[in-house]
Amino acid sequence: MINLAGNPDCDHAIRRELKEAGVDLVFHERRSTHEVPASITGEILEGKFTFRRAWYYWVVSGDVNIETARKMYADESRRDVRVAGHCGSPPPDDWARPTEKEIKSVCQREGVTYDLLKNCRYVTTYHIDTQEGLNFFVKSVTPAPRSEVSHGS
For residues 67 and 13, what is the distance between their CA atoms, to the nearest angstrom? Predict the structure, then answer.
């Protein structure tokens, strides 16, 4: 991805990158006051995930459940999809919320077993450095379309 910091023509690249990834475009009347002066952001799944362009990467906000985050992390070719924007590419369990300690506290307080809630954790932010990574992220968090089932007559 090219550096779009301070680029007044950034919307052209942003539109192209989002469209290629299958992300819905969101148009804003005013340009962003962030490092990239964009008037376009993106979203998928009715706003569950939002996409904002930073200087050479995308900032994605939204709750990625821990199981999906682990599957994405398991693909070692995708270190361009960074949990919490961390340059060291740590595993998602290090950044998932609520933390294991918080879950255990809820379980104790509510009288619920840990196994019931242990996977109720989410990674809330990603930084994505490449178009391929952006495409991979969108594909990973988007539910597969249901295939039509044909019933014989």
Answer: 32
